[in-house]
Amino acid sequence: MAARDNDQGGMGSENAFGRSSGENSEGKVDQRVQGEIGKHLRAFYDDVINEPVPNRFMELLEQLERSTQKR
Amino acid sequence: MPVSDALRDDLLGSIPNLRAFAVSLAGNSERADDLVQETLMKAWAKFDSFQEGTNLRAWLFTILRNEFYSQVRKRGREVEDAEGTYAARLASQPAQNGHMDLRDFREALSQLPSDQREALILVGASGFSYEEAAEICECAVGTIKSRVSRARSRLAELLALEAGETYGADALSATVIMRSVS
């Protein structure tokens, strides 16, 4: 499928994704696709963020604090 | 040098973000947590070189990233393997919110070259500006911008391939629809 000459952000495209029309003529991904990617990216990232901090890190910080005080 | 309570609390508060960044670099959470541990120890040891009031998070991210790449260099040959199995590892992480589309996304993300992936994560998920990301990655702002842009194009491509052409109106959502139907 040939790229359209004037891609208005993928609106009204029958294939709004991929090389042919998900990108505009400068090879950049259009706003809507960017939004979708951003949403997924944050979901992936927030999955880890929302995990409780493992105990090993609390213990490590306590240990570091003790070692600093001793000096 | 004694570390102030405020700085200690900020350090503690940065751990979830450091872990998330580490997972996206290392691909598995065990190695990610080792990276975070190393980062916290290094940060603590050189807190006197940190200027309080400047961006602690960017400073910590820089330490973590340097640690990651120095480990990669040390491991030498192992790296190739690490890169090769990265996709499998990242993809095998359970999708914790249970959404199938997130797993597809992880898989696509794992296929990006690491320099593009880290740029995209820093700007798109960690919330750093292009300037901060450039500082963390020790490269030009323009380089970060082009890496992010290439990462987005590649992801769009990978996810579009997954979805096929039938649901062109919104390929990402279409992936979800197709998966939940089949």
Describe this structure in words.
Chain B: It comes from Faunimonas pinastri. The complex is a heterodimer of chains A (71) and B (182). With 71 residues, chain A is mainly α. Chain A has one domain (18-70). Chain A contains three helices and no strands. Chain A has helices spanning 18-21, 31-49, 55-70. The longest helix of chain B has 23 residues, at 141-163. In chain B, helix 5 packs across helix 8 (141-163) and helix 8 runs parallel beside helix 9. In chain B, 76% of the residues lie in helices and 0% in strands. Chain B folds into two domains: 1-93, RNA polymerase sigma factor, region 2, helix turn helix motif (Rna Polymerase Sigma Factor, Chain: A, Orthogonal Bundle), CATH 1.10.1740; 95-182, Arc Repressor Mutant, subunit A. Chain B starts with a helix and ends with a helix. Chain B has helices at residues 5-26, 29-45, 56-75, 77-92, 100-110, 114-124, 130-137, 141-163, 171-181. At the A-B interface, helix 2 and helix 3 of A face helix 1, helix 2, helix 5, helix 6 and helix 8 of B.
Which CATH architecture of the largest domain in chain B is right? Orthogonal Bundle
Strand percentage of chain B, roughly?
under 5%
Radius of gyration of chain A: 23 Å
Give the oligomer, counting copies of the same chain as homo and different chains as hetero.
heterodimer
Radius of gyration of chain B: 18 Å
Poorly predicted residue ranges of chain A: 1-26
Average of per-residue pLDDT values of chain A? 69
Low-confidence stretches of chain B: 94-100, 161-171
CATH homologous superfamily placement of the largest domain in chain B: RNA polymerase sigma factor, region 2, helix turn helix motif
Give the termini separation of chain A: 70 Å
Characterize the biggest β-sheet of chain B: none
- Look at the structure and give the CATH class of the largest domain in chain B: Mainly Alpha
**Number of domain modules of chain A:** 1
Structural class of chain B: mainly alpha
The CATH topology annotation of the largest domain in chain B reads as Rna Polymerase Sigma Factor, Chain: A
Principal-axes shape call of chain B: globular
Element order, helices and strands of chain B? HHHHHHHHH
Q: Ends of chain B: how far apart? A: 60 Å
Count of beta strands of chain A: 0
Largest sheet: number of strands, sense, barrel closure of chain A: none
